[in-house]
Structures are given as structure tokens and as C-alpha cells.
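FAQ: What does the model actually see?

It sees only this:
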Amino acid sequence: MIEHEDAVFVDDAHADDCAEKRDDAERCAGQVQRDHDAERREQRAEDDRDRRVERAEFEQSDHEDQDDRQAEHDLEIAKRFLLLLIRAAVFD
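And it is asked to produce this:
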């Protein structure tokens, strides 16, 4: 007499293996996605750091340019004032 109630056929035994493999594949796919997302976050953070450095360099350069323009402006005023004094002396 064969018991059918708890009988396991060869194909049935492998069915659980396939389900486990599918679960493993889904877990692996999820891990790959998480790894990819982590890499993207790291890249964005690095890009943000690079932009902050570039911005700081630009602001420093801009500040130096403003200082140079102010110095040129001050020099131009001094020159014009001296020319005004010279003209006043010549026409007196």
C-alpha cells in the first residue's frame, strides 16, 4: 500500500528549489538596485562637493576682480583730480 497523503514526487521536491531560487534572484536584484542607488548618492555627493569647491574658487576670483576694479577706479579719480589741479595751475 502506498501512502498518497504525504507523498512527494520528484518534480514536487524541485518546485520548492525553484521558489527559493526566484526569491534569491529577487533579493539579488533588490541588492543590486540598493547598491546602484548608493553609488548614485555617492556620485551626487561628490559632484556637490566639486561644485562647492568651484563656487568658492569663483567667489574668491570675483572678490579679487572687484578689488582690482575698485583700485583702478580709485586710481582714475586720483589722476583726474591731479589733472584738474594742473589745469587750474596752467590757466591761472
